[in-house]
Specification:
Strand content: under 5%
Number of helices: 7
Radius of gyration: 14 Å
Oligomer: single chain
Helix content: over 70%
Number of strands: 0
CATH class: Mainly Alpha
Largest sheet: none
Number of domains: 1
CATH topology: Serine Threonine Protein Phosphatase 5, Tetratricopeptide repeat
Length: 119
């Protein structure tokens, strides 16, 4: 709510509190990273997702989001490693990667990895 009102600092603080009390809230982690990403804090957004993965190692959504952030950071090889993990965790959710960063749907490396898991 704070974020939609333009109260960025309040939004960040609210997410810290929510995640401190409920570190398994995958949606809160994703939303928090989005706030950071939209503020141009890409590295912080990726670090937030890294923390989220530590608390939720079976949440494929987090791995797919990390793939998007790592590609945006220019870390292609690391992104592809996370993509392998995401697909091994839940290959049916691969579409969320393209919902978040649509241009990745044209990336040959990503499509090649996905095609190994999707039959």
């Amino acid at each position: 709510a704070y974020y939609k009102l333009g109260q960025i600092e309040e939004s960040v603080e609210a997410y810290y509190k929510v995640l401190e009390y409920n570190p398994v809230d995958v949606e809160a982690w994703l939303d928090f990273s989005t706030v950071l990403y939209e503020q141009g804090k890409l590295l912080e957004a990726s670090e937030t997702i890294s923390d989220a993965i530590k608390n939720n190692p079976d949440a494929a959504e987090l791995y797919y989001r990390m793939v998007a952030y790592l590609f945006a950071l220019g870390q292609k090889n690391e992104a592809l490693i996370y993509l392998e993990t995401a697909l091994a965790t839940d290959p049916d959710k691969h579409h969320i990667l393209f919902e978040y960063l649509p241009q990745l749907a044209e990336n040959g490396s990503i499509l090649e990895v996905i095609n190994r898991y999707i039959k």
